[in-house]
Fold these 3 entries.
Entry 1:
Amino acid sequence: MVRRHLETVSRKPVAAHNAAAFNRLLDAVTLNPRPLILDSFCGTGHSTAELARRHPDHLVVGIDKSLDRLSRHPASEAGNYLLLRAECEDIWRLLVEAGLAVDYHYLLYPNPWPKAKHLQRRVHGNASFAWLVKLAGAGSGKKNEPGRIELRSNWQTYVEEFGVAMHLAGALGRVSLVSPAPALTLFELKYRESGHALWRYIGAAAALTQ
């Protein structure tokens, strides 16, 4: 399934509201050019604000399709981030088509869709995975190096599947336990306090566009 998605170009039209959200991103980049960080499926945007605090020289873009989740965003003093109500998949595609590079791409605790019949709803089982890997391989920063991608989950199988999919796409990466640093998301905090083992994949997509 992963190979099929990597070999097929999606022809699904970009939704109008996603195109409008992307134009907001373009306006922000034009007004104040800075390297980009993506926080896909950001939920309430708690992680977006925290990433912005940790990366003050970047514009951090949090993306989530739920207005309800985004409306619960906590107040933050960080001014270097943007929250978009949109489907991540269309934003990934538009970034690739616009030739915009991303230094870091975080996918923090996405819905795992644990039932086997829902494989195609997982990030790596969906047709949009091709856009994700093209975005990761587009190069970032002044050195034109591949961007770094990090996915976290409390379900080890999900992270390992994602790692295998990235390997099939030509990426170099590894699966490991999340270090006991301050939590990036509310889910991470909840899982840690409940005693869950937290897993992550970190990789650089050196061969994705070849």
Entry 2:
Amino acid sequence: MRQNLPKGFNLYLTFAALFIAALVSCNLIFQKFFFWAPFGENLVFEISVGILPYPLTFLFTDIISEIFGRRAANRVVLAGLLASLFTLLIVGLALTVPATSWSPINDETFSKVFGLQGAAVAASMLAYMGAQLVDIRIFHFWKKKTQGKHLWIRNNASTMLSQMLDTATVLLVLCWAGAIEWERFGALFVNGYLFKAMFAAIDTPILYLLVKKMRKHYGLKPNEDLGF
């Protein structure tokens, strides 16, 4: 049975698992906000902790797109959607059952942390599906245009645009649902997008290193993938 698995299947499964874990964790932790001042007081980010794992999802889909192909990336995006919806179902069930008198976390605290999961997942899924599919489409557009060369162009061009769409969609839905005040929209959009854009620039050398090693390992040409 093991011999029938396609070349690179275990690695594909690993990246898919990391992608889904990063995506689901975003929806579970999003209600805590923090500030970050990497360049001193001149630039202070005020953003949700849910943003920390989210840029990784774009890194993982870019790697999957580059090495395993467009269809493989689309399958992972769909799997992430199903995993998030299943998580929403589990959290909804946990919210309905009453806590015992000795429970370390009472109903009120649990509801305060997880009670907005519906709004969070709705926002995340709308943004996620649009942004990820746009990211994959633009990535492969530039891959075809450059004949598999200039990986940095398709990585950054696809991620920068898709992250803008993602950030705007998430905040619009959360503000509409009452999870965030409308007056915070502008600042959170700028902070969120700049953070994601910075991460996209930072992850480019990581992407280059991983893709180079995997191409060498699997003997792939610049414009070739494993065709999953």
Entry 3:
Amino acid sequence: MEKERKEDVLQRSYEAAEDIIKQRAKSFYEAFRRLPEERFQGVCALYAFNRYADDLADGDALGKTREERLLALEELERNVKRSNEWLPVT
């Protein structure tokens, strides 16, 4: 299988984030959708990340114990820290 280009993965990620804000926060979506595309994509990505983290924290609604929620949040933190290792220092 051919390795995906980073740009393609990033574009699909932005599209997924836009779907999340459109479905879960209609008023946010309407408020921000007229921003320049790059800014709008950033808003969508930030919203989707925060929505995901909030859903992990509120996992009791999904039948998760407090310990399971904490483990999931710790895993998210490790993943975020690991993803930042390749970023250039400015």
